[in-house]
Amino acid sequence: xxxxxxxxxxxxxxxxxxxxxxxxxxxxxxxxxxxxxxxxxxxxxxxxxxxxxxxxxxxxxxxxxxxxxxxxxxxxxxxxxxxxxxxxxxxxxxxxxxxxxxxxxxxxxxxxxxxxxxxxxxxxxxxxxxxxxxxxxxxxxxxxxxxxxxxxxxxxxxxxxxxxxxxxx
Length: 169
Prior knowledge:
Elements: H1 3-151, H2 158-168
């Protein structure tokens, strides 16, 4: 690289550094002015807040024993609530176990009752159907006797006998 180009590059770099320095200085001045205005607005607000903070401090100091008492009572109440919750949990677990046992017993009793009802139903069914079958058999015999008597003791023809036999085949 020739010396003239090198000098121009260095000169441009120095000019850029100066411009950057001036920009930084301008930004610093702007920040200083903003900080100054903010301070002018905030300081009066802080001055007005000091009596409020002093009052709050006095209230806190005056009520510190009461606050401590309330905190202690709250801790005791929380401990009592935990104990009672544990007792209720144990009671519910016990009740759940007992309910399961009772439900199992009831289920067994219901199953036994259903079986007995089925057995009684079968017994009633056979007790009712047996006489009905006997009556049907007697009626069938009477019917056959009446049909035979109505035909006058004649035997049916061969055609009729063949049709009856075909129905059973």
